[in-house]
Amino acid sequence: MSLLEQIHRGKEPLPPRITLYGPEGVGKSTCGSGAPGAVFIDVEGGLGEIECARFPRVKTIEDVFAALAELRSAPHDFKTVVIDTADSLERFIHAAICKRHAVDSIEKVLGGYGKGYVEAAIIFEKILSALDLLRTERRMAVIIIAHAKVEKFTDPCEGEYDRYSPRLHKGVSALLKEWSDAVLFATRKMRVERDERDRGSAKPVGRGGGDRILRTEGGPACVAKNRYGMPPEIPLSSDAIFTAIRDARAKAAVPAPAAPQAATTVPVATPVAEPVN
Known about the structure:
Elements: E1 17-22, H1 28-33, E2 38-42, E3 53-54, H2 61-73, E4 80-84, H3 86-101, H4 115-137, E5 141-155, E6 159-166, H5 170-179, E7 182-194, E8 204-215, E9 225-226, E10 233-235, H6 238-253
Parallel strand pairs: 1-5, 1-7, 2-3, 2-4, 4-5
Antiparallel strand pairs: 5-6, 7-8, 7-9, 8-10
Helix pairs in contact: 2-4, 3-4, 4-5
């Protein structure tokens, strides 16, 4: 069969690849545990109080690859693999690289100049490729959990400001953001008001609120994106995530109504007067 005969037309939906990040304690792992048929690859060791299926806590990067290989080859009924967390996974990768090169810091690998981080990005990309095989061959969704950090960002139009992003080295972070179908920022929606007790002060203070939400679109406050057309803000829950994706796909599948056609006017022949003799 030639390559031309193998061309696919139309959409081919696959399970989503989701990066879910946010500050400590907001509920990222709990959200992941509610995904359909979820199984965790426990890198961080923070799942003791969460009811979930999980592999024994991994201790090396080789353990991570072994778990992914088992999910790919062995019979099981899991539908979502959750890596908790990406920043702990990155530390495992750095430790393996340092051991291989007999150095005590990723900064010293091969003499420095960022070579250790390049090697780490290559290994991280191999993990993403293994996750893609689970997605295409076993039809498993992927959720990668990460902590958040505040970084300086320079916008050519707006100047420099602070924003939240995954707590990863910039090379790995760029790989993960590009690979993900959705990068979702978990946070609490706080209400800010003026302090009525001091009418001479214009300083705002936080009051109440604290609803846990996910931001699905990026902006000055955080890195976020999605390829589905999800609402800009949804509740922090796996049900809300998968429902928003399903609804967005269903909406995109509905054909747009045909534009009304202009009425066709049939020209009427103008009677020709008979000549007068």
